[in-house]
Amino acid sequence: MRTDLHRHPENPPTAVRNLGILAHVDAGKTTLTERILYVTGTTHKRGEVDDGTTVTDFDPQERDRGITIFAAAVSCAWDGHRINLIDTPGHVDFSDEVARSLRVLDGAVAVFDAVAGVEPQSESVWRQADRYGVPRVAFVNKLDRAGADLDSAVESIRRRLHPAPLVVQLPIGTESGFTGVVDLPRMRSLVWTDGRDTAEEGPVPEELRAEADRRRRLLEDAVAELHPAALEEFCAEGSVSAPTLVAALRDLTRTGDGVVVLCGSAYRNRGIEPLLDAVVAYLPSPLDVPAVRGTQGGVEQERAADPRAPFAALVFKVNATGTGRLTYLRVYSGTIGKGETVWESGARRVERIGRILRVQADRHAPLERAVAGDIVAVVGLKSARAGSTLSAPGAPLVLEPPAVAEPVITVA
Ligand code: GDP
């Protein structure tokens, strides 16, 4: 299903997912990002990482030099929701930059290689996300590779990362014959054929029926064990309906007691639509996460994701590009319109917001305003740095204590 971006210029906070893709180098983050942009209709051409045409490469000069430069955030639309894909640095350290990128997202997809399973680097990325309390779903990628094995990848998640893996798909076919998945909560199959953009939905193939039944029971048992409230409902109903199971999986994802596991092949464009459905179904919206805390005149304050509350936003990246200085921000509360003024916590002065932009892969869509929960880029700010708070001049707020100013990254 492709969704026209322009039909959803603005979304209520409940329909926003601020998403990061967490992966160690080579697990397929670039390919997956590329396919998400393609499947959501944000780009119309499938780029290939290996031939240097991925749209997330963004800048022709950088592309020529073979360096992947992500926009700090790219926006796409899926099933009536806006998904803001926030770039998370590939390197694993405890720098302010990594902390900030984890801070501005509300949920993440952790990508694993179906041959290698959990590797030391994926473990570090996972621990960092734990530290910032980021709810996750897991995507076991590269199922088309020789030696790919979902079960052993899941086993390594269980052994090394400790949340209970809740496997919601059964692959159809193996290695180069991997063609689709059985969606266990709904007991339907999704099959991808080369040359077609979207999955074909159908009944569970006869030869997989017994195995799919067995795996759904395993999933139900795992959920029931972790979520006694849901268990009561199971007993009362006899069999577990898809909505009940999905609601229980959503709770477990948000508490971090379990991790929903999906699989696919980003490279072959298989498994992307159910992954996006899972992002919408299981990961939280800006309204589902705790209110942000900051200080106003030294006094601690909480700001909920309410469009009518005083404006507060955190700057998480500043890029100097050919189109000007782009300041990326996460709006935590309130609403801001173009041309309005904000108080900037670094220079401690009032600045004017010029244009407000939604970054969509290789183009920028102008917006009249940005509201609580959203991620946008603005043009016109001079002193804001990564880590600055922007807030209503009448209610100046500081979300992060002043840090060493980071340099502005010059892309073009
Ligand atoms: P990143 O470093 O995590 O951004 O990984 P890339 O997206 O650049 O992928 C690393 C390598 O793995 C590239 O050569 C990709 O073509 C390849 N790759 C990515 N996804 C898949 C997949 O699903 N199957 C296979 N066989 N290769 C993949």
From TrEMBL:
<keyword id="KW-0251">Elongation factor</keyword>
<keyword id="KW-0648">Protein biosynthesis</keyword>
<keyword id="KW-0963">Cytoplasm</keyword>
<dbReference type="GO" id="GO:0003746">
    <property type="term" value="F:translation elongation factor activity"/>
</dbReference>
<protein>
    <recommendedName>
        <fullName>Elongation factor G</fullName>
    </recommendedName>
</protein>
<comment type="similarity">
    <text>Belongs to the TRAFAC class translation factor GTPase superfamily. Classic translation factor GTPase family. EF-G/EF-2 subfamily.</text>
</comment>
<keyword id="KW-0547">Nucleotide-binding</keyword>
<keyword id="KW-0342">GTP-binding</keyword>
<feature type="domain" description="Tr-type G">
    <location>
        <begin position="14"/>
        <end position="287"/>
    </location>
</feature>
<feature type="binding site">
    <location>
        <begin position="87"/>
        <end position="91"/>
    </location>
    <ligand>
        <name>GTP</name>
    </ligand>
</feature>
<comment type="function">
    <text>Catalyzes the GTP-dependent ribosomal translocation step during translation elongation. During this step, the ribosome changes from the pre-translocational (PRE) to the post-translocational (POST) state as the newly formed A-site-bound peptidyl-tRNA and P-site-bound deacylated tRNA move to the P and E sites, respectively. Catalyzes the coordinated movement of the two tRNA molecules, the mRNA and conformational changes in the ribosome.</text>
</comment>
<feature type="binding site">
    <location>
        <begin position="23"/>
        <end position="30"/>
    </location>
    <ligand>
        <name>GTP</name>
    </ligand>
</feature>
<feature type="binding site">
    <location>
        <begin position="141"/>
        <end position="144"/>
    </location>
    <ligand>
        <name>GTP</name>
    </ligand>
</feature>
